[in-house]
Write a structure and sequence with these properties.
nine-stranded mixed sheet; 9 strands; 22% strand
């Protein structure tokens, strides 16, 4: 039987964090899922950490050459067999009831395309960051209100809080491979044109930002900021 949820975990050079990400999936109160992990040719010990986990629901793939994040996402979506697709980044952490609450909402609201949640920020040492305002603490809006808010305020939905129907990707396509900083934002714009979405009004994800060392696309560094401005303009 196919799992109800396909969890996709794209990984790259997060040896110190990917174990926490995998454990947070395995500790979910909702257990009807497959965990698809694809490593984008990491140069550190990330793959060694992944291979320590032998749960039968884990399916692992490794690229022989670095492809980039959007291609890695695309590959994982194409492998997914579940009715729903959930994303966890290799440096983020889910809280235990994340899947349970979101699956219940989409099962009860068949016209909604995706369900998200609030998120809290943590740094590379697992310390909570007091982000004010927290851009991910958004109310629910109509589709028209979301489009207006996106146009005037930019991206404000936490990508690793996403639970989306697989059919949405089949109908709308996957992420724009030309974008590196905001492929998720481009996807949300296309999404709300066709489907209502719901945000659970509590944090179910710990989203990591590298402040003092290391790097991800959420790091507050110059090259990320420049890409963010250019892709927002696009």
């Amino acid at each position: 039987m196919k799992p109800l949820v396909s969890i996709i975990l794209p990984s790259y050079n997060h040896e110190c964090y990917i174990g926490k990400a995998i454990k947070s999936v395995l500790n979910q109160t909702f257990q009807d899922y497959e965990l698809l992990i694809s490593d984008d040719c990491s140069t550190d010990g990330t793959v060694n950490v992944i291979m320590q986990y032998t749960d039968w629901r884990i399916k692992f793939h490794q690229f022989s050459d670095n492809q980039g994040a959007t291609i890695n996402h695309k590959y994982l979506i194409e492998q997914a067999s579940g009715k729903y697709i959930a994303l966890i980044n290799s440096d983020d952490v889910w809280l235990p009831t994340r899947l349970e609450k979101q699956v219940a909402y989409l099962e009860d609201n068949q016209n909604y395309g995706a369900c998200f949640s609030w998120a809290e920020f943590i740094d590379e040492n697992d310390n909570f960051l007091n982000e004010k305002p927290n851009i991910f603490k958004q109310p629910n809006r109509t589709q028209a209100q979301w489009l207006q808010y996106f146009f005037t305020n930019g991206n404000c939905i936490c990508h690793p809080s996403m639970l989306i129907r697989r059919e949405v990707y089949e109908k709308l396509g996957v992420y724009n491979l030309a974008l590196r900083q905001l492929p998720d934002f481009d996807m949300w714009i296309r999404l709300v044109k066709k489907y209502p979405i719901h945000i659970i009004q509590e944090p179910l994800v710990l989203h990591r930002r590298f402040i003092y060392s290391g790097e991800n696309t959420s790091s507050p560094i110059l090259k990320n900021s420049v890409r963010d401005v250019m892709e927002s303009y696009y």
